[in-house]
């Protein structure tokens, strides 16, 4: 057992966990942040994507200890109070989710994609960049629409800041 | 996953001494092979020694006639490094094809080489570019480093610290990826040295891991063009033969990927 200290969604947290604990289980089972999902558990589906120090990663393939000292952002940490993150709002407005299981990972990956491309995205790029996120409802069309919509909104939000 | 003890050393020396103390220790870099293998209980190391946060293992440097990529540099950082893109764009391109964006944020060049998966991308670049693998004990030339399936010249406890790539006159990579895993069904890296020699390495194709392709090297040395490969015969002997592709199919892929790599190299 080790005490792992890290920042999650802006708050300093610590948990006494077995060394074999995966980050996704630290988040879900110890911090009760169940928005991050376990889909395939083989680093393929992307349902568990969170940000570590600003980069999208698959939290099922990171040991909790590897995240010690880092800043982790999960789907619970992106809205500002009652105001959804532009990516969340765009997913809602574009019907970018069906069953919703892949959605947290899709949204966390999508925010990372928009950041890496400075908001300059086209459909082909979004489809390619989402290759590590699988939607079993196969609802990709509206997911891609939502990401493109959000990229515009995030650009506007950034310009206003 | 079985129980293990996680360590995060802050230097290469500390990592090596932790390894020596563990009864069955393993180094962890990006963790994108070791953690999945531990989950499947195919590996159950007593100690996991994390190299990922050791500062001296991270970064890319330009040298006089090449670049040095330190071992714990992630695929994303190699793919987006201005230094790599300027000196060896084919290497940056190769790194951009590994896995998916989230995997590239974690996976490292040193981890990929130490694991030497027969379908991994980096071994093809290291072998074709004639790179040198630096460890905490010695320098190993690419020709001596790869020893077959998941096997390398690394000794127990030895740590890859960096890979030194010479800049070649021409270099290109093309991969036909498996649509689910993104591993190479076959990938071919071609390079032409300033002296006019040609080195061609194929990954994903052979039963014994990354390999040089002598017939294509000879054809390209005589005539550096995709067309020069048309008449080359690639034997299917010793090539992988599985549900994803027959040995004959992979033999053909070696040719086609080599042609695309030459076109990419210009």
Percent of residues in helices of chain B? 25-40%
How many strands appear in the DSSP assignment of chain B?
12
Helix/strand/pairing category of chain A:
alpha+beta
Would you tell me which CATH topology of the largest domain in chain A applies? Ubiquitin-like (UB roll)
Distance between the termini of chain A: 44 Å
CATH class of the largest domain in chain B: Alpha Beta
Organism (chain B): Bradyrhizobium lablabi
Pfam families (chain B): FAD_binding_5
GO molecular function, one term (chain B): oxidoreductase activity
Keywords (chain B): FAD, Flavoprotein, Oxidoreductase
In short:
Chain A has helices spanning 23-30, 86-93, 103-116, 123-129, 140-160, and strands spanning 2-8, 11-17, 49-52, 55-58, 71-73.
Name its key features:
heterodimer, A: 161 residues, alpha+beta, Ubiquitin-like (UB roll), DNA polymerase, domain 1, five-stranded mixed beta sheet, 5 helices, 36% helix, B: 266 residues, Enolase-like, domain 1, five-stranded antiparallel beta sheet, four-stranded antiparallel beta sheet
Characterization of this structure:
Chain B: One of its GO terms (molecular function) is FAD binding. Chain B: InterPro entries: CO_DH_flav_C, CO_DH_flav_C_dom_sf, Diverse_Substr_Oxidored, FAD-bd_PCMH, FAD-bd_PCMH-like_sf, FAD-bd_PCMH_sub1, FAD-bd_PCMH_sub2, Mopterin_DH_FAD-bd. Chain B: It comes from Bradyrhizobium lablabi. Chain B: Residues 1-170 form the FAD-binding PCMH-type domain. Chain B: This is Carbon monoxide dehydrogenase. The complex is a heterodimer of chains A (161) and B (266). Chain A has 5 helices and 5 strands. Helices cover 36% and strands 16% of the residues of chain A. Chain A has 161 residues and is of the alpha+beta class. Chain A is globular. In chain A, α2 runs antiparallel to α5 (140-160) and α3 (103-116) crosses α5 (140-160). In chain A, β1 and β2 form a beta hairpin. Chain A has 2 domains: 2-76, Beta-grasp domain (Ubiquitin-like (UB roll)), CATH 3.10.20.30; 86-160, DNA polymerase, domain 1, CATH 1.10.150.120. Chain A has a 5-stranded mixed beta sheet, sandwiched between helices. The N and C termini of chain A lie far apart (44 Å). Chain A has helices spanning 23-30, 86-93, 103-116, 123-129, 140-160, and strands at residues 2-8, 11-17, 49-52, 55-58, 71-73. Chain B has helices at 12-21, 34-39, 75-80, 82-87, 89-96, 101-104, 109-115, 122-129, 142-145, 214-222, 247-265, and strands spanning 5-7, 25-28, 47-50, 60-62, 66-70, 132-135, 139-141, 160-166, 170-177, 184-192, 198-203, 211-212. In chain B, strands 4-5-8-6-7 form a 5-stranded antiparallel beta sheet. Chain B has 266 residues and is of the alpha+beta class. Chain B has 3 domains: 5-50, Uridine Diphospho-n-acetylenolpyruvylglucosamine Reductase, domain 2 (2-Layer Sandwich), CATH 3.30.43; 58-166, Uridine Diphospho-n-acetylenolpyruvylglucosamine Reductase, domain 3 (2-Layer Sandwich); 170-265, CO dehydrogenase flavoprotein, C-terminal domain (Enolase-like, domain 1). In chain B, a hairpin with a 3-residue loop joins β4 and β5 (66-70). The mean pLDDT of chain B is 97.
């Amino acid at each position: 057992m080790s005490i792992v200290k890290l920042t999650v969604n802006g708050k300093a947290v610590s948990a006494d966990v077995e060394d074999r604990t995966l980050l996704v289980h630290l988040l879900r089972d110890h911090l009760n942040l169940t928005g991050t999902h376990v889909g395939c558990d083989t680093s393929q589906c992307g349902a568990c994507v969170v940000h570590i120090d600003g980069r999208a990663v698959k939290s099922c393939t990171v040991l909790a200890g590897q995240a010690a000292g880092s800043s982790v952002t999960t789907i619970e940490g992106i809205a500002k109070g009652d105001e959804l993150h532009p990516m969340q709002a765009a997913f809602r407005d574009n019907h970018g989710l069906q069953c919703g299981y892949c959605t947290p990972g899709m949204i966390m990956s999508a925010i990372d994609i928009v950041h890496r491309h400075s908001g300059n995205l086209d459909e082909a790029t979004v489809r390619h960049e989402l290759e590590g996120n699988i939607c079993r409802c196969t609802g990709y069309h509206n997911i891609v629409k939502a990401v493109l919509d959000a990229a515009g909104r995030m650009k506007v939000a950034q310009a206003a800041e | 996953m079985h129980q293990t003890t996680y360590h995060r050393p802050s230097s290469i020396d500390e990592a090596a001494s932790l390894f020596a103390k563990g009864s069955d220790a393993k180094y962890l870099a990006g963790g994108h092979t070791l953690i999945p293998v531990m989950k499947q209980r195919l590996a159950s190391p007593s100690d996991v020694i994390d190299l990922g946060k050791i500062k001296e293992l991270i970064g890319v440097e330009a040298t006089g006639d090449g670049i040095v990529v330190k071992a714990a540099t992630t695929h994303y950082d190699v793919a987006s490094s201005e230094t790599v893109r300027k000196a060896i764009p084919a290497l940056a391109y190769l790194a951009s094809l590994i896995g998916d964006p989230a995997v590239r944020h974690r996976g490292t060049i040193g981890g990929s080489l130490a694991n030497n998966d027969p379908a991994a991308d980096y071994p093809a670049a290291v072998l074709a570019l004639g790179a040198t693998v630096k460890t905490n004990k010695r320098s190993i030339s690419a020709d001596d480093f790869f020893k077959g399936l998941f096997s390398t010249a690394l000794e127990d406890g030895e740590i890859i610290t960096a890979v030194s790539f010479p800049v070649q006159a021409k270099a290109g990579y093309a991969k036909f990826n498996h649509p689910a895993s993104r591993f190479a069904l076959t990938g071919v890296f071609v390079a032409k040295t300033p002296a006019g020699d040609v080195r061609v390495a194929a990954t994903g194709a052979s039963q014994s891991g990354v390999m040089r392709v002598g017939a294509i090297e000879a054809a390209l040395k005589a005539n550096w063009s995709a067309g020069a490969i048309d008449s080359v015969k690639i034997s299917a002997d010793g090539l992988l033969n599985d549900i994803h592709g027959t040995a004959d199919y992979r033999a053909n892929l070696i040719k086609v990927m080599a042609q695309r790599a030459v076109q990419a190299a210009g």
